[in-house]
């Protein structure tokens, strides 16, 4: 690689200063109108006047850009990563064994429960950092690790579930934050010591040869330990505390330079180990002007390689860490030292950085994550101190932050461009042609690069941090090159689209804040952090080379260069920025840091207890949701049964029951066993015949005897025989009711089976993840894959209450199938293609306002669409009237059908049907008039004709036609994403009609033609399904006369593409009943097309639903402007709920975020009304009814949940005490009825899984709330009306614990049901 000669700085200084002075004077006289932005940080030159833009060619994007390839690869990598997500503890344990070669540690099931309860995405690869850090410790003794960790001065320790710290200074803020983070999960963790590196810089580098030897030992020790050797506990460190180990001395070396200390951690054959060591940093850095080695056409393709000092020996010359760090204390001794970041060759154990845990807005920017993308400045901002080490007169040109600021400064770049003999002291520009930059093209004028940079760069230092320290924020030796600007708070930086992030003394503490903003992070670093394996470059952020040579190419790709006729990729930048934020909101939350530390310290415990290495069995809990010591298993069930004289739960071949997951299945098994003995019927037949009852007055289980199919026996006699002979300590004597037998469960054993099951399974109670397996009887079998396509709004149309149904029904189905163990994918297939966008474009030209578009794009576009459609309707009125006249005539032409006579009567004679020649002539004239009028309108051309022509241009890829369409699409998606987030809806994929491949549509058209399914009709292509065995489905258009495709064509191709991509086992289309005929036609055509189309459609299903009508019962229409805005409805409902909450000031003040809670209540109100009837039913959107706290409404459901939460807070009974409560003390009939209801939840879920009706769950939940109210009001009339079920009036602590165990179980089931419906249960309101 050609390097810029390392010319001495001093030899250039005088030349540069003189040249600068001359240029300033010349510029003053000759170019008074120069206009570089005033915020640039380097004093001196100004750019030339801007050329007139209209003389430049129209901007176009550069084709086949390398970044396009990198983004495509990143998208695939992300998809492959998410394919590995595990959703059950068994899957997670299996993934652990496959990747780690060992059994998971004790507490792994509790960790998994904690992760799932906090809505974490669990991909085993996410935890690779932990094992990269910890695996070498398998090569040293456990005692050495324990002793070294225990003696270290700065440490966080866990003892008996409590986190404490040891330090020499109470002002060590980072230590306080790490203690606080650890304390949030300490209750689940073993005793462990964590020595902490309290400095910014890394402090440990062990020779590569030594680490390699430790890793070899680790690999040798891997094995899947057999069942009989498994253990499930850790050892206390109390004895170590009582008998402290010998003094451990890390032996830190504090003499520099650092590079020789660091490179011993690199492989012997690495470039860093072979490179000569540089000690003279007085000359400019050796920088390449061409692509970095290992890049893809100049851009980072291997992020690990790009930031590795071992592979990039030149880092010693261009990064402050190696030039002269702020502090230096390095040890070669290997011991467990924890820190927030490290170099790849360092051996610390990484924690989430302390500044990521703090809520200080200096690091996060606070709660404000910036404006909507379209409102942000098309510019880059960076503010920071010139940190990175000790920069001095001799070495400052080697520091990374100085270099980046210079490269982003128009004045510095202008100097480079216009005075080529004066090389800048600390950076280079790319060689001409290396990045194909428009500003470096032969047609570019001199200074084009600096003028382009001036348009978008707002980069400056706020303090130059001189060494030795000088009085001001500036340094005398850098004054010719830098000026200091004011700091810009992070929340204000989020108003810019592009946020570069550059290393300081170590990693940058702003990175997580940038990722969680709505701006686009551009990252360069040599440091590693805890989250690296869960972030994908080019998908979640933009990687940048540490020389920064690629930054100009990156910015031109995204921003373009309008002066030079290059269009940018703003929509791509937006997608990565918004997608990265959405991803960060899932994997970089505070909860994710807790989950990471939880897992890390479980494994650290293993390292410190090597002699006691313990493992977790394949038979670990079937659920998550358990805390330490509460893992669900069959023990408590078996114990209760044995107390009643039942040795075990009976099992039957061909009968799949889940007694651990469903307490009623225990009773089913006992009942099947008895009924087989009494009747001789097959267990499978009995199981199918036994029914759960929706009304408990009819029993807990019910048997219709005829369903047993017993030949030669009268059902009513069999019923009596069963009632007489049935005998079980779990059940009361059955009752025979004609041909039915009703079974009632005994209260006390029922409560002892049901309540512990709920308290142990927690968030998993009632759900059965075996249902989604290829073989439900084999927990190790493969998951089935389900795709749900739902919501699918038309872009540029306001998200209204009519869209709500598909959205929440689809979201519910995804949750339902995920809880049943399926691998689920949410798909939003946008209506983003068609003639209507030609109509909209005309409307915007006539009625549009840029100001209103920027303020509320979708609302404004919706208003425009309504207005232009009114114009179109007026224009098409003659055709509409003629078409109606034609329909009336055709009705007269068709003879009436004969009427069926009444029973016992003869049919009346049919009246003579008259259709005259005059009427026939009239009909023909009307048809001719219609065609003539249409032709006249087309010649004008009419709005409709212009729209057709415009769409034809879109179809053919006309850039001008696509420009507004793309803009409207991007704005719509941005608005929809916000609404979906508000509704707790997430989509794995945003597709659309526009994304369907032309080749797949053409292939489908050829199949239709070759198989004789399609036919020509006046130049168009149709399918007449009446000719193919489906007379009720009629004719449907496949392709218009102008050759443009229709919905159906795209649906056929899209169906094929989805199967090719996902290979799903089942796909559900959630589409309104208005489209029933269209979907039926679509499915029938796929069936007729034969394999593979017919095979794919056999896996597809249409779930239909009724319409949401306005409060007066009228159908909503976007074109007529009669839709009810969902955002407005939610805002109105939120405001109402907020006002209601304020009425109880004491409770209001206890709510952490009242506005967020009010929003949740508003959403609950709307969603519950939607769920209140069967899917196929229409309903009126009645805001007054849905926001009421009276009756079965969303607010009432939330109130019921919050009330029990309040009881839990006030009683504060520990979980262990609830688990051991004496449940025989629940004797009141109201409490017993509540137990019976709680037991039904698993069957409610199973029934809902079969029917897919959310109203089943909602009805059950309201039964629960009513029964809870009955419990609160229960009185003992024989004891002066004493409240028998009120916790605060409980006679004894034992009764109080029993009641609270019941109510806690009820709250858990309420929560599980609400979450399945997509509601967020509130704890206070």
Tell me the quaternary state: single chain
What Rg do the Cα atoms give?
Answer: 36 Å
Low-pLDDT ranges: 1-58, 610-631
Shape: globular
Sheet with the most strands, sense and barrel status: 5 strands, parallel
- CATH fold label of the largest domain: Rossmann fold
- Total of helices: 50
* Strands side by side in the biggest sheet: 7-6-8-9-10
Q: How many strands in all? A: 28
Beta fraction of the residues? 5-15%
Mean pLDDT rating: 85
* Corresponding CATH architecture of the largest domain: 3-Layer(aba) Sandwich
User: In angstroms, what separates the terminal alpha carbons?
Assistant: 66 Å
Number of domain modules: 6
CATH class of the largest domain: Alpha Beta
Enzyme class: ligase
EC number: 6.1.1.19
Protein name: Arginyl-tRNA synthetase
Keywords: Ligase
Provide structural commentary.
It is a single chain. By secondary structure, this protein is α/β, with parallel strands linked by helices. The chain folds into six domains: 9-55, no CATH class; 87-254 and 598-612, no CATH class; 266-318 and 352-559 and 566-588, 3-Layer(aba) Sandwich (Rossmann fold), CATH 3.40.50; 635-745, Gyrase A, domain 2; 785-876 and 942-1109, HUPs (Rossmann fold), CATH 3.40.50.620; 1165-1316, Isoleucyl-tRNA Synthetase, Domain 1, CATH 1.10.730.10. It is 45% helix and 9% strand. The chain has 50 helices and 28 strands. It has a five-stranded parallel beta sheet. It has a five-stranded parallel beta sheet with strand order 19-18-17-23-24, sandwiched between helices. A four-stranded antiparallel beta sheet has the order 13-14-16-15. Strand 17, helix 30 and strand 18 (823-830) form a beta-alpha-beta unit. Helix 31 packs across helix 36 (943-955) and helix 36 (943-955) packs across helix 37 (959-982). It is globular. The relative contact order is 0.07.
């Amino acid at each position: 690689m050609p390097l810029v000669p390392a010319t001495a700085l001093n030899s250039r200084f005088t030349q540069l200063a003189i040249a600068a002075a001359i240029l300033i004077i010349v510029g003053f006289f000759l170019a008074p109108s120069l206009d570089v932005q005033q915020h640039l940080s380097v004093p001196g030159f100004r750019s030339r006047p801007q050329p007139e833009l209209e003389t430049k060619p129209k901007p176009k994007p550069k084709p086949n850009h390398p970044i396009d390839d990198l983004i495509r690869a990143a998208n695939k990598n992300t998809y492959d990563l998410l394919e590995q997500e595990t959703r059950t503890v068994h899957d997670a344990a299996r993934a652990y064994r496959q990747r780690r070669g060992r059994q998971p540690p004790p507490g792994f099931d509790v960790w998994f429960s904690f992760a799932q309860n906090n809505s974490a995405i669990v991909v085993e690869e996410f935890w690779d950092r932990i094992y990269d850090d910890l695996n070498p410790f398998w090569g040293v003794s456990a005692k050495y690790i324990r002793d070294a960790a225990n003696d270290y001065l700065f440490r966080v320790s866990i003892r008996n579930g409590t986190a404490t710290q040891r330090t020499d200074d109470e002002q060590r803020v980072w230590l306080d934050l790490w203690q606080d983070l650890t304390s949030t999960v300490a209750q689940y963790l073993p005793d462990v010591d964590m020595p902490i590196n309290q400095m910014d810089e890394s402090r440990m580098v062990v020779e590569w040869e030594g680490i390699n030897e430790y890793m070899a030992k680790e690999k040798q020790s891997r094995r899947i330990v057999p069942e009989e050797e498994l253990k499930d506990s850790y050892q206390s460190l109390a004895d170590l505390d009582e008998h402290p180990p010998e003094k451990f001395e890390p032996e830190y070396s504090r003499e520099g330079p650092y590079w020789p200390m660091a490179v011993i951690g690199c492989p012997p054959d690495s470039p860093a180990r072979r490179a000569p060591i540089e000690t003279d940093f007085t000359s400019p850095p050796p920088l390449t002007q061409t692509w970095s080695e290992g890049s893809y056409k100049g851009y980072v393709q291997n992020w690990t390689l790009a930031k590795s000092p071992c592979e990039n020996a030149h880092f010693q010359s261009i990064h402050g860490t190696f030039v002269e760090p702020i502090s230096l204390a390095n040890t070669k001794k290997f011991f467990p030292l924890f820190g927030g970041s490290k170099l790849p060759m360092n051996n610390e154990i990484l924690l989430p950085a302390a500044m990521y845990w703090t809520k200080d807005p200096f690091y996060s920017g606070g709660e404000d994550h910036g404006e909507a993308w379209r409102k942000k400045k098309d510019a880059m901002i960076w503010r920071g101190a010139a940190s990175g080490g000790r920069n001095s007169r001799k070495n400052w040109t080697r520091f990374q932050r100085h270099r980046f600021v210079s490269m982003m400064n128009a004045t510095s770049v202008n100097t480079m461009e216009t005075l080529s003999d004066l090389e800048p002291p600390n950076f280079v520009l790319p060689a001409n042609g290396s990045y194909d930059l428009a500003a470096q093209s032969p047609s570019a004028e001199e200074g084009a690069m600096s003028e382009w940079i001036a348009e978008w760069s707002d980069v400056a230092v706020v303090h130059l941090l001189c060494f030795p320290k000088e009085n001001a924020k500036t340094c005398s030796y850098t004054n010719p090159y830098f000026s200091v600007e004011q700091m810009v708070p992070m929340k204000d930086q989020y108003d810019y689209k592009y946020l570069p992030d550059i290393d300081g003394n170590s990693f940058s503490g702003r990175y997580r804040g940038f990722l969680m903003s709505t701006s686009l992070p551009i990252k360069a670093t040599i440091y590693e952090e805890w989250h690296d394996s869960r972030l994908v470059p080019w998908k979640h952020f933009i990687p940048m080379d540490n020389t920064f040579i690629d930054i100009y190419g990156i910015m031109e790709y995204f921003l373009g260069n309008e002066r030079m006729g290059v269009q940018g990729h703003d929509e791509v930048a937006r997608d990565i920025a918004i997608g990265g934020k959405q991803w960060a909101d899932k994997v970089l939350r505070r909860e994710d840091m807790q989950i990471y530390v939880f897992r890390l310290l479980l494994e650290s415990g293993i390292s410190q207890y090597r002699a006691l290495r313990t493992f977790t069995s394949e038979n670990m809990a079937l659920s998550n949701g358990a805390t330490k010591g509460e893992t669900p298993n069959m023990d408590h069930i078996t114990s209760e049964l044995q107390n009643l004289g039942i040795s075990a739960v009976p099992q039957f071949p061909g009968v799949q029951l889940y007694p651990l997951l469903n307490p009623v299945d225990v009773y089913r098994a006992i009942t099947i066993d008895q009924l087989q003995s009494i009747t001789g019927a097959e267990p499978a037949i009995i199981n199918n015949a036994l029914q759960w009852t929706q009304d408990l007055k009819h029993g807990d289980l019910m048997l219709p005897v005829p369903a047993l199919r017993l030949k030669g026996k009268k059902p009513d006699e069999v019923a009596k025989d069963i009632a007489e002979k049935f005998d079980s300590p779990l059940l009361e004597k059955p009752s025979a009711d004609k041909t039915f037998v009703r079974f009632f469960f005994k209260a006390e054993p029922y409560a002892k089976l049901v309540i512990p099951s709920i308290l142990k399974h927690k968030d998993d109670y009632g759900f059965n993840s075996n249902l989604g397996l290829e073989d439900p009887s084999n927990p190790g079998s493969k998951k089935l894959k389900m795709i749900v396509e739902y919501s699918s709004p038309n872009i540029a149309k306001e998200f209204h209450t009519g869209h709500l149904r598909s959205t929440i029904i689809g979201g519910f189905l995804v949750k339902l199938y995920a809880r049943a163990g399926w691998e689920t994918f949410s798909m939003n297939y946008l209506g983003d293609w068609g003639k209507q966008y030609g109509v909209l474009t005309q409307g915007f030209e006539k009625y549009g306002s840029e100001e209103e578009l920027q303020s509320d794009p979708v609302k404004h576009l919706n208003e425009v669409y309504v207005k232009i459609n009114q114009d179109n309707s007026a224009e098409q009125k003659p055709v509409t009237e003629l078409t109606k006249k034609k329909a009336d005539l055709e009705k007269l032409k068709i003879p009436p059908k004969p009427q069926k006579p009444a029973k016992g009567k003869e049919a009346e004679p049919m009246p003579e049907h008259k259709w005259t020649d005059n009427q026939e002539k009239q009909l023909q004239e009307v048809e001719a008039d219609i065609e003539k009028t249409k032709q006249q309108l087309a010649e004008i051309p009419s709005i409709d004709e212009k729209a057709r022509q415009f769409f034809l241009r879109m179809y053919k890829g006309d850039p001008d036609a696509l420009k507004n369409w793309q803009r409207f699409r991007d704005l719509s998606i941005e608005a929809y994403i916000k609404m979906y987030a508000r509704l707790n809806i997430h989509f794995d994929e945003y597709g659309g009609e526009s994304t369907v491949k032309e080749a797949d549509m053409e292939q489908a058209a050829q199949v239709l033609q070759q198989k004789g399914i399609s036919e020509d009709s006046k130049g168009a292509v149709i399918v007449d399904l009446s000719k193919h065995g489906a007379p009720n489905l009629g004719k449907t258009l496949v392709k218009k006369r102008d050759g443009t495709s229709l919905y159906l064509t795209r649906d056929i191709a899209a169906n094929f593409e989805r199967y090719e991509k996902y290979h799903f086992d089942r796909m559900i289309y959630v589409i309104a009943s208005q489209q029933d005929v269209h979907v039926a036609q679509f499915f029938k055509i796929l069936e007729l097309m034969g394999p593979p189309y017919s095979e794919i459609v056999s896996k597809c299903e249409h779930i239909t639903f009724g319409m949401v009508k306005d409060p007066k019962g009228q159908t909503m229409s976007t074109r007529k402007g009669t839709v009810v805005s969902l955002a407005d409805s939610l805002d109105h409902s939120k405001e109402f709920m907020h006002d209601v909450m304020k009425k109880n000031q004491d409770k209001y003040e206890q709510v952490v975020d009242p506005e967020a809670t009010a929003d949740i209540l508003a959403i609950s109100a709307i969603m519950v009304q939607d769920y209140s009837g069967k899917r196929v039913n229409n309903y009126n959107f009645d805001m007054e009814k849905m926001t009421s706290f009276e009756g079965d409404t969303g607010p009432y459901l939330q109130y019921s949940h919050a009330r029990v939460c309040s009881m839990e807070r006030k009683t504060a009974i520990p979980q262990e005490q609830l688990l051991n409560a004496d449940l025989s003390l629940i004797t009141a009939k109201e409490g017993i009825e509540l137990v019976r209801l709680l037991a039904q939840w698993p069957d409610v879920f199973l029934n809902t899984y079969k029917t897919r009706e959310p109203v089943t769950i909602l009805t059950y939940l309201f039964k629960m709330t009513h029964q809870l109210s009955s419990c609160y009001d229960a009185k003992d009339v024989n004891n002066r009306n004493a409240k028998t079920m009120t916790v605060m009036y409980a006679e004894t602590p034992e009764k109080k614990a029993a009641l609270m165990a019941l109510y806690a179980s009820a709250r858990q089931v309420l929560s599980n049901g609400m979450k399945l419906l997509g509601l967020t249960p509130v704890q206070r309101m």
